[in-house]
Amino acid sequence: MAFLFNKFLEAVKVLAKSPTFARDPRQLQFEADINRLFLYTSYNRLGRKVEEADAEEIIEMASKASVADQQKLVQENIHSQIENFCTAMDEILLPDMKRKNEPGEALGQSDTAS
């Protein structure tokens, strides 16, 4: 048993020295975080109408896209979600702003105000 454990440790040391596996841990964490954000934001952007096939397509896209592409898509997804949120908040907080105010009329005044 100890022999197998020692062989395993030797294999780990060899792999750790390999340029493929000996990458900066911070860079690896950054790439993992971007990948996770890509999955979350892409899934969230689809909203309530998401289906299992859509989720599988997002996972496939994540496996094929580079980190730079994923980062760009995360930024686009977040921007879109913030725009949607702001639009919804405008409709809730400023329902009268849909009407055009008369020139000279102060903001927030309604037609019925005396």
From TrEMBL:
PANTHER family: C5ORF35, SET DOMAIN-CONTAINING PROTEIN. It comes from Hevea brasiliensis. InterPro entries: SETD9. This is Uncharacterized protein.
